Each structure stands twice: as C-alpha cells, then as structure tokens.
C-alpha cells in the first residue's frame, strides 16, 4: 500500500531537514528522503554542510588556528610553549566526532518531531508521486500533497585538473589529509579555497592559490577585499590572480600544474592540489521527464520568490535554486516553504543574507557594498573603525582589520555592514538585526554597547558615518 504524506522532502541537508522538522511542527505528516551514507555505510543526515562542508571545515580551521597561536603567538602573553607539534590524524579524528554528534542529533530531532526518514534516492514523478530507491536497488512510491526539493550541490569538476581524491582532491578530500603536504596548490580563491588553504598553511604547508579572475573576492566590498589580500599574503598564502589552469599531470605522488597568466605559460609542482572552483546543483535523476518542473541549462530549478516551482505544490530550496549557496539561506527557505504549505503568508528577506569567510581574520558582510551602491547612483556616507583602536581586540592580541558601515547620505539608513577582523560574523549579524528593522547609523550610534567588547567597533563605525566617532579622529567633511 502506497504511503501518503502531507509533505515529502527530498534531501536532508540544512534546507531539507529544517523544512521537514518545521512542517512536522506545524502538524503536517512529513517524510524526508536521504541517500548519503557515512564511511560505515549508515545514513548520515545534515547534507554537505554537516558532513563535508561548513562544520568539519570550521573544526579544522579552529584546530589549526590554536596550533598556529601556540607555536607563534603565545610568547606575547608570557606563555612559553616549546616544541609544539600537530597530530594531524588526531585533528581529523576530532572533526569526525563533531560531525558524528551533529548528524546523530538531526536523526534525534526527526524522531522527536515525528518526521519519517526514508532511506534512498528520491525522484519526483508526475502527479506529486515520489520514487524512493534504496541502496539495495528496491523501489517504493510515496504520495505527497506537497513536495520540497532540497537535493543540494556538489563541487564542480574541471577537465584540466580531474579529481582522484589522492593527489588532486576536491573540498571533501581536503578535509581528510592525514599529513601536512609540503607544497599545496589550491585552484580558486573563493570562500572554500581560502578557508582550506588557510588550514594547511597554518600547519606548515607552502600554499599557492591560483585564481582565474583578475580581481580578488569580487563579491566583497573593495576596501575589505584589499585588506584581506594584504593580510593573507602576509600570512604566507601566495595568491596568484589572473592565473588560468590549463592542465595537470600526476606522477610519483606529485602534480605538475600548467597555467597561463599575464606573462604567458607557467608551470608549478605540488604534493597535493585542491580544486575549489565552486559548486553546482545536484539535480541528476531528481526529476522524471514528465514531472513538470522546469530547470535552466545549468541544472538550477526555476522558482518564484517563495520557492514555488512551475508545478503547484512542488517547491525547491537551497543550492538547487537561484541565489547564494549558503546553509543559512537554505534553512530559512525551508522554514518559509513549510509555513506557506501550512497556510501562513511567510516571506523571506533576500536582501539581508549575511556572507562569511571563516579565515582568520574572519570576513563577513550584509547588505550592499560601496561599489554596488555607487553603481546604482546612491549617495552614501561611510564610517570605518579599526580593531587596532579597540581595547578588547588589543587584550586578545587580535587587532587586524576594521568595521565599515555604509548609510544612505539622505536618510541615514544603514545599507551595508562589512567587517574583516575578530568575530566578524557575529558583528555583521548585529548589523543585520538592526538593518532588518530599518536602522539608521544614528540609531546604532545612540545605543549603549558594553565595554570592553569587539562590538564597540560597530558602534564607533556607525558613529563615524556622520563624523561622530569618539575613539578615532573623524574625517573632516569636505
């Protein structure tokens, strides 16, 4: 007998599992389909983010930063730490335990909320029927009033550097190194490339990042990107812009990479090569030809502002639809869709989705960049405040970077908050909360911020927008 559900979610990543839990909480009979298995052959929930993305990479970033600090920066605090070493397999093991705890936690949440987990590959058929194919090849059909497609994304492969997960790896393979490579190449100076490059550079690898674009971090505010490039170069990352990889050759556990730059054809040899040129939606065999759901030529599913597809009752969220490939964006889309299925008029504010790069210093922003606003002809006032003038940052020996607040010159409404420095993601989130309520720079300036905190840098940057900063000299108005 065919099982029937109010909602069937295909995919249990941060979009899918959140959508399933929310739908169940709203009283809808809900099932979630997942096929991803861990190394032990057990179903692992949480998608790329929990298993091989956001969480494990942060675990390695934190471990490598602690090692780097202990080795090179404890002396300033009066702490003597001689002969500090890194046990790479232990670091990787810690990361694996964190992943296991979190994926198991999602399974527990499914049980607590009454979500039915269906193990296997989900495929949408005509008439909102979903075919589930188990790892044993057996199939079953489930019927749904509503279907949410949340199948996520995977790393993009490039022909000049085919991944073998040994010498040439993708972001997943880069989380599994059992020793520090002497020479490490990274193709792509985006979020993933910079984060993974940072991990292994801190542990002693000589890291070269090859970026095809001539501009560094084009999505970030130019002032922030410039500071980031300067900082990463100082940390030892060799970032080559305008370097287009044309081929690679693996021999004797090394890879020779050919690339072209402004000076012509170049060659460089690495012990390991990470390919981090972006991600693409996983929509292969997700939709039957008669499902009625439309996709574009790159495999993204067409949706409206509320994530509805071309078929009534079928929705798509997360990395398979337009917009930034971010876990928090996927989760909020999942909440919005579950609410709409339950009859509520939920909306999502796509203008205020924070972006974060978890290097050290962190880089984060929300809203628009100064160059975007100038391109739109919007007159702005800008306030910045350096962490070098923050007592809390000095106490923590972490004074690199600054906070930048951009406000409309006419209304004083805050249009962007950009940070490079300690706890950038947390400070930007404070900005996002204010912006959600239409804050002006003056509003932020009038609030009481506790002292001494890093968030005072946001306070001072907001004051600086109108020339009222207290702890730095204000720019003279022309």
From TrEMBL:
Entry similarity comment: Belongs to the class-I pyridine nucleotide-disulfide oxidoreductase family.
Described function: The branched-chain alpha-keto dehydrogenase complex catalyzes the overall conversion of alpha-keto acids to acyl-CoA and CO(2). It contains multiple copies of 3 enzymatic components: branched-chain alpha-keto acid decarboxylase (E1), lipoamide acyltransferase (E2) and lipoamide dehydrogenase (E3).
Compartments in which it is found: Cytoplasm
Keywords, comma-separated and alphabetical: Cytoplasm, Disulfide bond, FAD, Flavoprotein, NAD, Nucleotide-binding, Oxidoreductase, Redox-active center
Class in the EC hierarchy, top level: oxidoreductase
Binding, FAD: 58, 122, 319, 325-328
GO biological process: 2-oxoglutarate metabolic process
Positions with a binding annotation for NAD(+): 188-195, 211, 278
Remaining remarks: The active site is a redox-active disulfide bond.
UniProt GO cellular component terms: cytoplasm
Keyword check for Nucleotide-binding: yes
Signal sequence, start to end: none
Protein name per Swiss-Prot or TrEMBL: Dihydrolipoyl dehydrogenase
Main location class: cytoplasm
Domain Pyridine nucleotide-disulphide oxidoreductase dimerisation, residue spans: 353-462
FAD/NAD(P)-binding domain sequence ranges: 5-334
EC number: 1.8.1.4
Subunit structure: Homodimer.
């Amino acid at each position: 007998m065919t099982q029937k559900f109010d909602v069937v979610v295909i995919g249990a990543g941060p979009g899918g599992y959140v959508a399933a839990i929310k739908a169940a909480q709203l009283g809808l009979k809900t099932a979630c389909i997942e096929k991803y298995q861990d190394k032990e052959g057990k179903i692992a929930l949480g998608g790329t983010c929990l298993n091989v993305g956001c969480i494990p990479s942060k675990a390695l970033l934190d471990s490598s930063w602690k090692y780097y600090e202990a080795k090179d920066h404890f002396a300033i605090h009066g702490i003597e730490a001689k002969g500090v070493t890194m046990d790479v397999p232990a670091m990787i093991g810690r990361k694996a335990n964190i992943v296991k705890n979190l994926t198991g936690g999602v399974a527990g949440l499914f049980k607590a909320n009454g979500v039915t987990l269906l193990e296997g590959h989900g495929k949408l058929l005509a008439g909102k029927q979903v075919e589930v194919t188990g790892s044993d090849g057996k199939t079953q059909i489930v019927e749904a009033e509503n279907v949410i497609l949340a199948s996520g994304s995977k790393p993009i492969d490039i022909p000049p550097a085919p991944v073998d997960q040994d010498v040439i790896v993708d972001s997943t393979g880069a989380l599994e190194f059992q020793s520090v490579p002497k020479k490490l190449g990274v193709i792509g100076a985006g979020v993933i490339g910079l984060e993974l490059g940072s991990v292994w550079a801190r542990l002693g690898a000589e890291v070269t990042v090859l970026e095809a674009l001539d501009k560094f971090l084009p999505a970030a505010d130019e002032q922030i990107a410039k500071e980031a490039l300067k900082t990463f170069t100082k940390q030892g990352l060799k970032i080559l812009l305008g370097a287009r990889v044309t081929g690679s050759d693996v021999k004797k556990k090394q890879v020779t990479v050919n690339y072209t730059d402004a000076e012509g054809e170049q060659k460089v040899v690495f012990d390991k090569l990470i390919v981090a040129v972006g991600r693409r939606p996983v929509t292969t065999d997700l939709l039957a030809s008669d499902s009625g759901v439309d996709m574009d030529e790159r495999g993204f599913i067409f949706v409206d502002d509320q994530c509805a597809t071309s078929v009534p009752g079928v929705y798509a969220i997360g990395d398979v639809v337009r917009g930034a490939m971010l876990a928090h964006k996927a989760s909020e889309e999942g909440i919005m869709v579950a609410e709409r299925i339950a009859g509520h008029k939920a909306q999502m504010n796509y203008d205020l989705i924070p972006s974060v790069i978890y290097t050290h210093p962190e880089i984060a922003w929300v809203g628009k960049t100064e160059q975007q606003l100038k391109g739109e002809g919007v007159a702005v006032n800008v306030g910045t405040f350096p962490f070098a003038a923050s007592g809390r940052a000095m106490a923590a020996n972490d004074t690199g970077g600054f906070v930048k607040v951009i406000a409309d010159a006419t209304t004083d409404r805050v249009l962007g908050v950009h940070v490079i420095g300690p706890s950038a993601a947390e400070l930007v989130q404070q900005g996002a909360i204010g912006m959600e309520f239409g804050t002006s720079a003056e509003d932020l300036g009038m609030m009481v911020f506790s002292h001494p905190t890093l968030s005072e840098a946001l306070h001072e940057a907001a004051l600086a927008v109108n020339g009222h900063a207290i702890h730095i000299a204000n720019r003279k108005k022309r």
